[in-house]
Fold these 2 entries.
Entry 1:
Amino acid sequence: MANLPVQEWTLLEAARKVREKEISSRELTATILARIEALDPKIHAYITVLPEAAAAQAAACDEEQAKGALRGPFHGVPIGLKDIFCTRGVRTTCGSRILRDFLPPYDACVTEKVLAAGAVVTGKHNMDEFAMGSSTETSFFGATRNPWDVSRIPGGSSGGTAAAVAAAMCFAGVGTDTGGSIRQPASLCGVVGVKPTYGRVSRYGMVAFASSLDQGGPIARTVADAAALLGVIAGYDRRDSTCVDIPVPDYHAAAERPVKGLRVGLPKEYYEGGGLSSEVRAAVEKALKALTDQGAEVVDVSLPHTSFALSTYYLIAPAEASSNLARYDGVRYGHRAEGASGLIEMMSRTRAEGFGDEVKRRIMIGTYALSAGYYDAFYGKAQKVRTLIRDDFTKAFEAADVLLTPTAPTPAFRLGEKTGNPLTMYLSDIYTIPCNLAGIPGISVPCGFSAEGLPIGAQLLANSFREETLFTAAGAIERALPVRRVAPLGG
Amino acid sequence: MAITREEVLHVARLARLSLPEAEAERLRGELSAILDYVKQLDRLDTRDVVPTSHAVETGTPFRDDVVEPFGDREALLANAPDRQNDCFRVPRIIED
């Protein structure tokens, strides 16, 4: 049985070790699978683990390499996927009862790209049902625990991916972010998470939640790893009509550039609210000092419509969701209620049985906001305020190259702490939501710990298609604030 | 902004969600609270603002209208909750 110190290796280090034949993909994969077997009963980061398929993939990688062929930059390295990306013949549940037994007939574009890069897919990560949630507690398959403190949530909706990466149950993963679902769990689990510009990563085969906001992106233990993984999954795909056809730059190189002269904007609205914990504020100030110590300049900026972002989001996202989720009708795939006497009854009962409370709540809000007589007052109004929020960012990026903010207002909260009141749960995404409304890219990078030893992340935002600037700034913070990369387990 | 039980049931019908009585009442309270919160948008004057429906304006991409067979019909049909030969079976559509 292989017992390699994989928790100390980054994705890029593991890839180099396989490439240079220091270790085989078989050994590497067996070690990761053994960690999953030992740790995941406590964490529950995976909905589906693929031990046989991963071992077979690893063996195939080793055989090909023996003949001198490498599949790609992550040849033979274990990577996981949020259970929202379709995997051909491997069940894809989106955390929902309604898709409990769904076997996709095709791979998502992200799945194809990760496989083409040579990665070994370890399995499918747990998530809030249909990515609706901030704690991974709405999953039909049960909550994921934070590897830094198993009495706490890992964030969400990509909580399974963030927890799996933090506990070294894979070298990196791909999540999705509609209102903070990559960045917030990355922050709460002490790892790096990137929400790319809308249109940078194909949404083909990624189960839709809110189509004008959804974007896939990497979660990894270092900035360089996240940059390298984004380089693999980004790029044009004609099967997603919103995917943008512009070249993919060398993100990894950007992570090592100096920040001297970089203009770092501090949006005052993000630091004013009463909800920001003093520990998070102090940690983000350290991240700022790390940037200024390396020659970055500070500028004050204002995003005056920030306080309207949450309301805007909670009309637009549910409206789009109510439309997207209309496809789950029990006819072609997924759960179907038994014993209905007619079609409408079958559909209504199928959806009542198949969806959980949070999904139903959002379908109801969205249907209401789109219904006759309310469309202009709610959905139409929200689309107009979305324009004002976008314009705020356009103006801010005239003065600043990058904006620095907290990722989440507090460190990880306890399981059950916010499930009773939907609005308090929604507030945990208050700093991440505006980025999705504006379509711009964002990253969360670890910048410290609370007194209780919980990770804290800083968020950086840049103008559309300026992911390189995010990696440059995040890389500088990471170099100056060496924080522990893997969660201590056993708590 | 309080919404009524009848409105909740109407929206549930539109959304094809069957709701037990207790759930309808709980949702009435939760939706009212959320709608109260989002009504803050009314404080903004948006008369001259153009709505945003896409984050990144890309225009509509065009391609040639070429048929591309999917190929694996069985994989599609295998997910059917109820199937008869190559068809999806559903309960009766025309109700009495």
Entry 2:
Amino acid sequence: MRHTIGCGSLSRCLTPLVAGSAALLLVTACSGGSDDAANSEGPIKVGSILDETGPLNIYGEAMADATELAIKDINENGGVLGRQLDLVSYDAQSDNAKYTQYASQAAQKDQVAVLMGGVTSAAREAVRPIADRTETLYFYNEQYEGGVCDRNTFNTGVVPSQQLAALVPYAIENFGENVYVIAADYNYGQISAEWVKQYAEEAGGSVVGTEFIPLESSDFGAVINNLQSTKPDVVVSLLVGGNHIAFYRQFASAGLSDAMKIVSPTFGLGNEQVVLSNEAEGITVAFPYLQEISADENETFLEQWYAEYGDDYPYVTDSAVAVWNGWHLWAKAANSADSIEREQVIETLESGTTFEGPGGTVTMDGPSHHVTQNITIAEANGAKGFEVLSTEEAVPPSFEQDVCDLISEPETNEQFTP
Amino acid sequence: MQSDELANLAISLLTTVSILVVISIGLAVVFGMMGVINLAHGEFLMLGAFFTLSGQRAGLNIWLAMLVAALGVGVVGLAVERLLVQFLYGRLAATMLATWGLSLILVQTVVLIYGPTTQGIPTPLGSMKIGGYSVSEYNLVLIAAAISLLGLVYWVFTRTRYGTMARAVTQLPNMAASLGINAKGVNMLTFGFGAMLAGAGGALLAPVAGVVPGMGQAYVGRAFMTVIVGGPGVLTGTASSAGLLGSVDSIVSNLTTSFLGTAALLVVAIVLLRVLPTGISGRTGRQL
């Protein structure tokens, strides 16, 4: 069962009363959840907050779809501890203030066993303190700038020490050593640009220019000119969001595709390859998941996905799969701990819960609370998809492993930056 | 500086200026002629882009799709004026609140129809070489379109009967009414014309930007800045302020980074408004 925002509509709360029977479930849902969901029989309440409307829903919509499908899949396979999962999902409407509000509601009113969600890093930082304070287990399932170290938080998204560590050396080896960085102007772009510099230098390349572009900017004329006068071999794009798609289009229409290669850890998350089609040809990316990965798990996963959402679904993104992995990791950990108590689930996850995801094996790295996963390098094929070039298996979140050990220092609670 | 570099810089500068013109001319008409602050202006741009997308998917030639899109947004503008704005003339705060609400409704309606994902139209035409640089030919289209739109506004307000009446209504509404001019009808047409220009702006941007329901937000700030700095003169104000702000942005961006370009543009806008609180065309009064 899925319901949004508790008693959001009056009719939802009244219907069971009118119907008279089978009302117990909904009345419980509407009464404010006074009983402790963690200990009772019946469905287990779990929470999700994502941006299903507003500008960020270009990422959030697919993640919300993945959430529903994951819950359905877990329920069809026997649920958790033999109980069904009951998803309480909130739409934060691309507004960080709503994340704060809904996180409190999910934790205190719904008393969810686990809370997942957040698209941007800002959203995560809105939810995390509330989840910590209310002792509600929290999963952040989206690619981000890395470094979060918090015993209550588990991160299943790919981090720069996995993605850029694979992509930047590949670009320098194959395309040339002069690197130009174009990054979105907020913490993700700023921190990732630092990473690019570090990995470029380690691989024998050098960063010849860096530009930060505000999220609402879509005029890249000056950037295109600067690229033409600097003439780098590789352009690392850390651009994010709908407006920044303009860059790839203006790059292609200025005829630069032959002169330099674009590599990007973000290209594809907003379905850029579908929007741009042949203008995107040759752009190189690195992700834990791409729809083209050939694995049995991926085939089954895509079959389920298309059966649920229709064959015309544009492209199943890496973010969607990170969400899918997050739910399954939690369900597996709870099942093997034989409990949904936060403490026991954390301990089980820290022992290295493993899940066969659509993109390959995903293993929770106990000390850092990030996942070890495969990284696939691929090239946009100009036909709305990617061509897989190579896959590196079991890439650890090396930076997070270096700085964060929550098993020996469980009190740590900060975000490390390079 | 090499001649090819200079030519490339000039095209880049004119493109930036032209983008400011096409995104703000519709707003300038509505604000300059009617004194209405339309916070849904960004969404009119967005509609222009989406209508172009639909037209093109329906098999129309891209240029024809743009034209149809502009006219389509004009029709939407007429409807908005009749159903919403006409009741709020003279009430600035109420108009702002109502058009802001309208912008939210338009964004979510488009999300429901087209879905939330970014869509796009490939940039038409190719690129050409200027010495060591290559330039998108579509940039030249943008420059020509900006000049044409300014020309169209000039022609409409000086050479047509409607234009004369519109200026009369703007300057002395009571006198215009006593001469038998239907101010209601004129206002409706002016709002519709402004919406059409905004639609044209959105249509022109569609092939160089990501077409996404929230795209209006990316432009509305700049559009307002251009119009406020320009002042009440629809043509003189828009052209001069777009020229000035666009040049500053483009030159600084090209010499340093686009981050500093945006910063320089904001600094110039603030200083200008401090020195000329009514905008560049403020002293010439409410003329074109």
